[in-house]
Amino acid sequence: MIRTMLGWIAFLILTTIAGICGTSLSLISPKKVVPYVVRPWARLMLLSCDVKVNVEGIENVPKGPCVIMFNHQSIFDVLAYMAVLPIDWRAVMKKEVGRMPFIGWVSMLSGHYLVARDGSAGDTREVKKIVKNLRSGPAVVLAPEGTRSPDGKLLPFQKGGFFIALLARVPLVTMVITGGREIRSKGSRWINPTDMSVKIFPPIKVDDLPPGRIGREELMSMVRSQMQGVLDEYESSEAS
Fold this sequence. Notes:
Elements: H1 2-28, H2 33-48, E1 53-56, E2 67-70, H3 75-84, E3 89-94, H4 103-109, E4 113-115, H5 121-134, E5 139-142, H6 160-168, E6 172-178, H7 180-183, E7 196-200, H8 212-239
Parallel strand pairs: 1-7, 2-5, 2-6, 3-4, 3-5
Antiparallel strand pairs: 6-7
């Protein structure tokens, strides 16, 4: 209980400070928000919750444009990738995030993407904007499941992120995060400190895939296989 209370107090204080700094910096230089506000905020949040993140394959993160996909079990997954990714990036988030104080304001002002995920014309326009920006801009980070898994098992993948990678013709990187659900699962308010692990696979070159639906399904299958393999290994190690 004490760790949970300290974690929530740290969240309120650190988020308020980072939100003020991030909002101000977004108006001056949006490109500096991730390295100078978001990354330090995430690292301090993990530190305040006594969470250590072990990373494997950080050298696989391209320096140029790419799509990075991660499995989503806990809010701590987001803190983990924010803390460890050594590049500039923009996240694809639920539209509702934009209404959150500080986090939403910084997200909108610094160029992250807020989508409704309802197939509306607005979403189509947002995908086109992401593709256009991605070809020359920073990497895009998203969860192909679209939301947090309640039991840790992979949910069905949404197609949008794979369309983006194929249309932009940029590499796709699979990032598998474990341990976050044990710290705080979906719907829980309790924080249970433990180590997390992030495994980053070598980039998948989409130019090597067939065009159209066949290429998209092959890409989805490859990413799912990589994620499932790590999750199966993690579950086996936890059970032994």
